[in-house]
Amino acid sequence: MLWDMEGVSGLLTREHVWFWEPGVREQVAEEGRRLLVADINSAVAAALGAGADELIVCDTHHGGGNTRPGEMLSDPRVTYLEKSRGIQDGKLRWLPGLDETVDGFMVPGHHAKAGTAGAFLPHTWMLDWADFRINGQSVGEMGIEACFAGHWGIPVLLAQGDEAACREAEGMFPGIVTACVKRAVDPNTCEGLDAASARRLTAERVGQAIGKLRGGGAKPFRPALPMTVTIRMAAPQKAGAAATQPGVRRVDEFTVETQVGRHADVVKWIAGAGLDMEAKR
Ligand SMILES: [Zn+2]
Question: Less Cβ crowding at N or C end of the chain, within 10 Å?
Fold first, then answer.
């Protein structure tokens, strides 16, 4: 379970989630974190109840660190990772624990990709990226993360978020189970289910997704290799900087492109996140 925060149950304003921005009130940011913790605990209980024998729960929002170690549902079957980068087998990597021993991948708390109309806080990784494409297909963070999981052939089971995020997931991952807990009124505000009802819906869908995995109805996201990865940047200077790296081609003023040979390398060339990472990044 790879948790982002924008798509969490009952979390309806920008101030709840982009807590690093100027003017954010501490009590609102704190309420956002409480909603995240409550949603994770509810989904984890649902997954265990549906028969998951082991769970790795990772907080990826803003690199992680938004959960409360003492407040998470404690169970020997669950491992909580407070950061999206960490050590596995002595090496620094993105999403430690995600490997061939994992049966299914879930992306709760997520948001739609950059440029999506009618979406709550749409973006892709960082605000510098206007569009991210794999073999010509425009994808957001769910697509990037699912592609990374695709390195080990891990199927994508569930997405949770606003209507736009769920639509994006359904378009990309046929057969995925979604939990649509809200809809954007404008890019900074949502309306939708109250937190408790949204958590109940999500818990029910987590159970369904695990049932579907058992039934063999879930597929990994594995674009054809080698993959052509293209990024249109928000500003030409960003494209210029990216194009100085070996193997990266400047397509036009805003756009850079490269080829990667493994699904696990989908963003390593541009964001440093992948396998065998250098410690300085
Ligand atoms: Zn986020």
Answer: C
